[in-house]
């Protein structure tokens, strides 16, 4: 599974940070950060989700109030 995070869409509610340690708070920028994410296009970051974190990553995506987080399994969006 992979997670994609659109940092430009993020409004800094940090609900994802509370749900999964794959996200951290960047208080200076007022946005979350995808830990170990690599920029795949302008403002969009992606990384593999460890198997033991798949549930938490999906929950983080569902908790985002602006849908800045998407989870993919074998190329198909699941959240």
From TrEMBL:
<keyword id="KW-0411">Iron-sulfur</keyword>
<protein>
    <submittedName>
        <fullName>Ferredoxin</fullName>
    </submittedName>
</protein>
<dbReference type="GO" id="GO:0046872">
    <property type="term" value="F:metal ion binding"/>
</dbReference>
<dbReference type="InterPro" id="IPR051269">
    <property type="entry name" value="Fe-S_cluster_ET"/>
</dbReference>
<keyword id="KW-0479">Metal-binding</keyword>
<keyword id="KW-0408">Iron</keyword>
<keyword id="KW-0813">Transport</keyword>
<keyword id="KW-0249">Electron transport</keyword>
<dbReference type="Pfam" id="PF13459">
    <property type="entry name" value="Fer4_15"/>
</dbReference>
<dbReference type="GO" id="GO:0051536">
    <property type="term" value="F:iron-sulfur cluster binding"/>
</dbReference>
């Amino acid at each position: 599974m992979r997670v994609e995070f659109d940092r430009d869409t993020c409004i800094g509610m940090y609900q994802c940070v509370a749900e999964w340690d794959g996200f951290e708070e960047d208080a200076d920028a007022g946005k979350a950060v995808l830990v170990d994410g690599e920029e795949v296009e302008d403002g969009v970051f992606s990384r593999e989700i460890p198997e033991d974190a798949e549930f938490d990553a999906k929950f983080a995506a569902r908790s985002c109030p602006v849908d800045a987080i998407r989870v993919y399994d074998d190329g198909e969006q699941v959240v």
